[in-house]
Write a structure and sequence with these properties.
Elements: E1 2-7, E2 10-14, E3 29-35, E4 38-44, E5 51-53, E6 60-61, E7 68-75, E8 78-86, E9 89-99, E10 102-106, E11 121-126, E12 131-136, E13 140-145, E14 152-158, E15 170-172, E16 175-179, E17 185-188, E18 193-195, H1 201-207, E19 217-221, E20 226-232, E21 238-244, E22 254-257
Antiparallel strand pairs: 1-2, 3-4, 4-5, 5-6, 7-8, 8-9, 9-10, 11-12, 12-13, 13-14, 15-16, 16-17, 17-18, 19-20, 20-21, 21-22
């Protein structure tokens, strides 16, 4: 199930609609969606049906029978599910898009696929209210809100290494940053994806356990303008690195964290 923070050092149970069946490799991903003055949380874990929570009571299965998904975001007043499973079949390059202002309405006609680059979706993440990024194994795309028969127009923007995990993508100010599948650090602003981690790439490659990619997480410390990434090492300990904004690709931008 889930736990919600209620202030101080207190957490409360908010059970899912049935037990969650994911393991350590099935990290839960969340998005926030505003509907009729209510803040709704939508959660996916690549194993169970998407869940929804309105701030009180328990989580419940999201209405409309949406597909199982690996990642989720919201943009242009719609919920977007990425890397979906339909009828037991994985559709790694496909998304599912909810109805306008309605996260409980889903149609098989709104399941766009991006097969051109031959890779799978790792993460979908909003860049702003109208545009979201689609991170695949080896490419970066954007979905741009369109007031047309199709809710989004999709464009390929770059073909750099994709993020090692959905949780490794961090929004900091007006861009996204992530640790790539190649151990490098990257910055994507919706137009181009640039390397920022060449100075520490070998350090990350020698530390991160690439067989456990889902355990790489990142957070943004806005007060100090720092991004902190953590990962599991091959020896079973945890290590990480700090990146300081607004540096580019310079050694002084990074500081390794001690293993623990």
């Amino acid at each position: 199930g889930f736990h919600v923070y209620t202030g101080g050092t207190t957490w409360a149970d908010a059970p899912a609609s049935g037990l969650l069946n994911g393991g350590a490799g099935n990290q839960v991903r969340f998005t926030i969606f505003m509907l009729a003055g209510t803040t709704r949380v939508v959660a996916v874990n690549d194993v169970d049906v998407p869940q929804s929570w309105t701030g009180t009571g328990n989580f419940a299965a999201l209405g409309g029978s949406p597909p199982i998904a690996k990642c989720v975001t919201s943009a242009f007043q719609r919920v977007i599910l990425g890397n979906i499973t339909v009828g037991g079949t994985r559709r790694g390059s496909t998304m599912a898009i909810s109805g306008f202002q309605d996260p409980a309405t889903w149609s098989s006609l709104d399941q766009p696929s991006l097969p051109d680059t031959g890779d799978s979706i790792v993460e979908v993440r909003a860049l702003n209210a109208q545009v979201f990024a689609i991170y695949k194994d080896r490419s970066q795309w954007v979905g741009i809100g369109a007031a047309d028969i199709f809710p989004f127009v999709f464009e390929l923007r770059d073909q750099q290494s994709g993020p090692i995990s959905a949780a490794a993508v961090v929004q900091a100010e007006n861009a996204h940053y992530y640790i790539g599948r190649d151990g490098n650090g990257y910055r994507f602003d919706g137009n181009r994806c640039i390397s920022i981690g060449g100075a520490v790439r070998s350090l990350i490659q020698g530390s991160l356990d690439f067989s456990l990619p889902a355990r790489c997480h990142g957070v943004f410390d806005a007060a100090n303008r720092e991004i902190w990434w953590y990962w599991q090492t091959a020896s079973g300990t945890f290590a990480g690195i700090v990146y300081r904004l607004p540096y580019g690709e310079v050694p002084e931008a990074f500081s390794p964290l001690a293993s623990y």
